[in-house]
Amino acid sequence: MFKQLSGEQRRELILNGNLYKAVTFLAWPVMIQSTMMILVGAVDMMMVGHLGSDAVGAVGMARQAIQIIGISIMAVGIGSTATIARYYGDKDIKGAINATGQALYFFVIFASANTLIGLLFSEGIMHLLGAEGDLLLLGSKYLTIFFAGLIFFLGNFTLRSIFQGTGDTKTPT
């Protein structure tokens, strides 16, 4: 059931196979990925917990801004996955390639803009969230580090969405 399947075998399972098996086949890697992403936030808090309440508060506030970016890219990723899946399911490879190109184009624009804004305005973002004093200083440092690596986070998410659109939920993990 969980063995490696070729692209055509995955397609056949998804389109004509047992619905329970198809959903399970597609869902278990996604559930593992989601759990790992949640653990990143929890590990951040555990590591920062030893640094005091200001550090915990700063990370908590900064993660609110991070959530907005995450939700935005998730919305686009879900749309990309659905669009690519539709073309792939119809065996319209040209359409799937075009949708993939659009997803990658959006990723480059979104990642570049958000990285630039985040690196330049981390302190302003924290101020908008209501941070003052040490919370402002610590939170803006945390956001600066996050935004410096944002392209990798968004790139992973975009590629994962593209692979999932073809029924491959394991490759990008």
TrEMBL record:
Transmembrane segments: 20-42, 62-82, 103-122, 142-163
Residues of the signal peptide: none
Entry GO CC: plasma membrane
Taxonomic superkingdom: Bacteria
Keyword vocabulary terms for this entry: Membrane, Transmembrane, Transmembrane helix, Transport
GO molecular function annotation: antiporter activity; xenobiotic transmembrane transporter activity
Family matches, as InterPro entries: MATE_fam (IPR002528), MATE_MdtK (IPR050222)
Described purpose of this protein according to its UniProt entry: Multidrug efflux pump.
Family: Belongs to the multi antimicrobial extrusion (MATE) (TC 2.A.66.1) family.
Name the UniProt record assigns to this protein: Probable multidrug resistance protein NorM
Organism classification: Bacteria, Bacillati, Bacillota, Clostridia, Natranaerobiales
